[in-house]
Amino acid sequence: MEKKEIDIKKITEKIEKESAFVDLLTMEMGKVIVGQKEMIESLLIGLLGKGHILLEGVPGLAKTLAINTLSDGIKGVFSRVQFTPDLLPADIIGTLIYNMKESNFSIKKGPIFANFVLADEINRAPAKVQSALLEAMQEKQVTIGEQTFKLEEPFLVMATQNPVEQEGTYPLPEAQVDRFMLKVLIDYPTLEEEQQIMQNNLSNNSEKIKPVVTPKQIISGQNTINEIYMDEKIEKYILDLVFATRYPERYNLEKIKPFINFGVSPRGSINLGKAAKCYAFLKHRGFVIPEDIRSIINLVMRHRIGLTYEAEAENITSEEIIKEIVNEVEVP
């Protein structure tokens, strides 16, 4: 038992050293982005957990600015794709171009070849374009013609959805939504925050972001996260939370059973564990506590619970179901 405690102390010391860049990066992003603490935290969790993020919010809430700022702070390559109904997979991954002089094909790489890719309004493009992007996200590689290219690390896709307009959109199928590690809902800023945003935008002295972290530090951080200690009791807690979405009756939650069409997938369990470790890393801790899981559970599970028509008829959201589960499942 004593050896384990010494180990945890050692891990925490290592994490404290490795995670020092988090505060630097958050501070740097805070120069441009006012408020939106959860969004910045989610971006960092997605980045450190080698996952991807689905952002939902009305237009004008700094979704594009956030990922652009993150890329500036990390000295990374940023690209933005505006999804439209006439977009083709080649517009994202690239294509073969015939060179008439040399009578051969050359490869023109698409915007997916970047460290940070913003897929703006992902639900505006048809399914074949969405699946081209999702393949790159999952496999971290792209095939053009007969050649396969590895994508550079770190690699983070942030896709945005506008919940207001449904006309002319292609909603992401559940199986594809499941590939996003986190789903973040962004709300309007507070009155004070909006005043600050207004002042920043109306004055000439707008802050410039300096690169404060190298991609190498990020990759090192991603590898260190695996060393963060997670007790078996915490693993069991994660599994109980996930299984409660599949078999509510086993956890005295019969009342929510009619509202759940399907529960969280095994990918959800993995991502819940991974995101909890990333959250502990952001807090400079070498071990996971139940509070970490409660802090990120909505981000990981809200898009993985399928709701029935009954739930929709009664305006019951996946967040309300998660709240019921968190209140009922025993904390270790």
Structure description:
- With 332 residues, the protein is of the alpha/beta class.
- The protein folds into two domains: 37-186, Rossmann fold (3-Layer(aba) Sandwich), CATH 3.40.50.300; 227-328, Magnesium chelatase subunit I, C-Terminal domain (Helicase, Ruva Protein, domain 3, Orthogonal Bundle), CATH 1.10.8.80.
- 47% of the residues lie in helices and 15% in strands.
- The protein has 14 helices and eleven strands.
- It has helices at residues 2-18, 20-30, 37-48, 63-74, 90-93, 127-139, 174-177, 191-202, 215-225, 232-246, 266-282, 290-301, 309-313, 318-328; strands at 53-56, 78-82, 94-99, 104-109, 116-120, 141-144, 147-150, 156-161, 182-185, 260-262, 306-307.
- The strands form four sheets. A five-stranded parallel β-sheet has the order 2-5-8-1-9. The chain has a two-stranded antiparallel sheet with strand order 3-4.
- Strand 3 (94-99) and strand 4 form a beta hairpin.
- It is globular and about 70 Å long.
